[in-house]
């Protein structure tokens, strides 16, 4: 029997640009043309001022570690515990959930506010997940 | 809403709590409802309003044989019942109904007739949280903790004390699931669930239910039980995604609902004799003490660690033992309300002497929603 797979996102019309972006190696955010608010998760209007005039742009991929847990049990399908579930704060402002790769999954290695950079993990031809690793340099 | 216009006149939990393998989830609702109706000295036909969560009002109304003219199916997680109390009080005052039954029950442990909880892969949670390994509340609810600790200088030992103190309360309660005393060392050496939290900092998983009956204060004096009046109420929601909270240093749902209830009640924090803060996990009482304005967040850990919330302390908190030691069927808010009502009636197993005002604060989801009810036994 195959290993259970990790939960896979299914894009909607409003989020497709985000998942097209990760597949192309870009982290895409949205900015309001009216009030310049940068927001996440995706939606075709600004949750700050309600303008429908919004633009998609490529984010820097730079972030810092806002908070996390190291999950031991129960583990989600497709994950080998212990693994960190993190919330990262992007340089552009919004926060998102992700994992921290290329880093021991320990409290000692995972320091709050450490600098991170985006990496991309391809799950299949349609879905690539944004992940974060300790920033180089 | 005006103060003290509506009262709780019936309150009861299921006959058994803990592991109840001989009842389905809707029967647990009925068991609690029938106990509350008996407590109030009413007949089923006296009930003209019904509110419940997860299960639909039509399911529970039909199963019980109630024909309501007012219905509330607000379902925002474990604090739904605080919101039901608020909505029911407004409805009774507005004349939409006279006697409201609020039920909760969950076959959380035995899983008999329990509705499945799922996160569709095309929901926002399914797209932007599930793929990163969240799997149930223990992997999500503690995510803000490390940030909160860093911001306010809270220690692991202080948060462990939340569990220790609540076990002290539970020891006084014959119906509590866990009664054996524990130490900070026990907590910090217990099985790791999701760092920084270990199993003794996570709520229990049990079966059970509870029900409340509300009516106007004018009618309340004719009921067999001492009326418990609704002095103030508040509610709010923030986000279903823990990753999208405005900040991990506070809960916006808490800072909206809590102060709203205090303003409505017209009381100061020093007036509070008894406090319930829904503790699905050990950090929630800290967030609650800070967000409800009892003290700055920096002081919450020390306040609990120094014993101020334990039996005999100056602010008795979670006096039934809480979700950590009393019981937690999945939506604990109802049990917090039951304990507040018992304290106001003067019949709690760990009764706070001469308590006049009880604040009952609930959370729904992972800080997704909140409801606060302030009770009094003096009109």
Let me know the number of strands of chain B: 11
Strand order of the largest sheet of chain B: 3-2-4-7-1-8-11-10-9
What's the number of helices of chain B?
14
Instruction: Specify the biggest β-sheet of chain A.
Output: 5 strands, antiparallel
Largest sheet of chain B: 9 strands, mixed
Averaged pLDDT of chain B: 97
Helix content of chain A: under 10%
Strand fraction of chain B equals 15-25%
The SSE string of chain B, one letter per element, is EHEHEHEHHHHHEEEHEHEHHHHEE
Category from helices, strands and their pairing of chain B: alpha/beta
Please report the distance between the alpha carbons of the first and last residues of chain B: 15 Å
User: Biggest interface, which chains?
Assistant: A-B, 38 and 38 residues
Low-confidence stretches of chain A: none
Helix fraction of chain B, binned, reads 25-40%
Strand order in the largest sheet of chain A:
6-5-4-7-8
Number of helices of chain A: 1
What do these coordinates show?
The complex is a heterodimer of chains A (137) and B (379). Chain A is mainly β and 137 residues long. Chain A has one helix and eight strands. Chain A has one helix at residues 16-23; strands at residues 28-32, 38-39, 54-58, 62-71, 83-90, 95-98, 115-122, 128-134. Chain A has a five-stranded antiparallel β-sheet with strand order 6-5-4-7-8. The longest helix of chain A has 8 residues, at 16-23. The radius of gyration of chain A is 16 Å and the shape is globular. The relative contact order of chain A is 0.20. With 379 residues, chain B is α/β, with parallel strands linked by helices. Chain B has helices spanning 25-40, 57-64, 80-94, 124-128, 137-140, 145-152, 156-170, 184-189, 217-220, 252-265, 284-291, 300-305, 322-325, 333-345, and strands spanning 6-13, 49-52, 70-72, 99-107, 192-195, 197-198, 207-216, 228-237, 274-277, 357-364, 369-376. In chain B, the strands form two sheets. In chain B, strands 3-2-4-7-1-8-11-10-9 form a nine-stranded mixed β-sheet, with helices on both faces. In chain B, helix 1 (25-40) packs across helix 2 (57-64). The longest helix of chain B has 16 residues, at 25-40. Chain B is globular, with a radius of gyration of 19 Å. In chain B, 62% of the residues are buried. The model of chain B has no long low-confidence stretch (mean pLDDT 97). The chains are: A mainly beta (137), B alpha/beta (379). Chain A binds chain B through residues 6-12, 15, 19, 40-41, 66-79, 82-83, 85-87, 95-99, 107, 112, 129, and chain B through 119-122, 124, 126-136, 138-140, 142-147, 150, 191-197, 241-244, 248.
């Amino acid at each position: 029997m195959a290993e259970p797979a990790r939960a896979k996102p299914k894009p909607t019309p409003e989020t497709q640009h985000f998942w097209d972006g990760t597949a192309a190696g870009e982290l895409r955010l949205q900015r309001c043309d009216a009030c310049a608010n940068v927001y996440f998760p995706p939606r075709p209007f600004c949750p700050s001022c309600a303008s429908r005039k919004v633009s998609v742009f490529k984010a820097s991929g730079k972030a810092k570690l806002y908070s996390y847990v190291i999950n031991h049990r129960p583990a989600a399908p497709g994950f080998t515990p212990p693994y960190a579930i993190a919330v990262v704060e992007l340089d552009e402002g919004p926060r998102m959930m992700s994992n921290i790769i290329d880093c021991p999954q320990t409290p000692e290695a995972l320091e709050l506010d450490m600098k991170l950079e985006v990496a991309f993990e391809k799950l299949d031809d349609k879905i690539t997940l944004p992940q974060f690793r300790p920033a180089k340099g | 809403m005006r103060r003290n216009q509506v009262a709780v006149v019936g309150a009861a939990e299921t006959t058994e709590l803990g592991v109840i393998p001989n009842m389905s989830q809707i029967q647990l609702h009925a068991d609690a409802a029938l106990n509350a109706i008996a407590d109030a000295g009413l007949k089923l036909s006296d009930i003209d309003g019904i509110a419940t969560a997860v299960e639909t009002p039509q399911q529970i109304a039909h199963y019980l044989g109630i024909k309501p003219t007012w219905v509330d199916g607000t379902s925002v997680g474990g604090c739904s019942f605080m919101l039901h109390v608020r909505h029911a009080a407004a409805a009774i005052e507005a004349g939409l109904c006279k006697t409201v039954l609020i039920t909760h029950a969950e076959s959380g442990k035995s899983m008999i007739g329990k509705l499945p909880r799922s996160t569709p892969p095309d929901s926002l949670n399914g797209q932007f949280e599930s793929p990163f390994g969240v799997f149930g509340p223990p992997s999500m609810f503690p995510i803000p903790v490390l940030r909160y600790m860093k911001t306010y200088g809270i220690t692991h030992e202080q948060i462990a004390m939340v569990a220790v103190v609540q076990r002290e309360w539970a020891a006084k309660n014959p119906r509590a699931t866990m009664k054996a005393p524990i130490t900070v060392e026990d907590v910090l050496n217990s099985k790791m669930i999701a760092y920084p939290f270990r199993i003794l900092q996570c709520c229990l998983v049990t079966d059970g239910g509870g029900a409340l009956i509300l009516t106007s204060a004018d009618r309340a004096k004719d009921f067999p039980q001492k009326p418990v009046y609704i002095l103030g109420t508040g509610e709010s929601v923030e986000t279903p995604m823990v990753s999208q909270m405005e900040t991990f240093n506070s809960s916006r749902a808490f800072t909206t609902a809590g102060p709203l209830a205090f303003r409505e009640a017209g009381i100061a924090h020093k007036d509070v004799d008894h406090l319930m803060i829904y503790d699905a996990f050990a950090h929630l009482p800290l967030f609650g003490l800070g967000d409800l304005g009892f003290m700055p967040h920096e002081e919450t850990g020390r306040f609990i660690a120094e014993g101020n919330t334990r039996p005999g302390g100056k602010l008795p908190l979670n006096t039934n033992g809480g979700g950590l030691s009393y019981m937690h069927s999945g939506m604990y808010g109802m049990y917090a309300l039951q304990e507040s009502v018992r304290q106001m009636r003067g019949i709690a197993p760990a009764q706070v002497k001469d308590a006049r005002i009880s604040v009952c604060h609930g959370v729904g989801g992972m800080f997704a929603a909140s409801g606060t009810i302030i009770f009094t036994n003096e009109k």
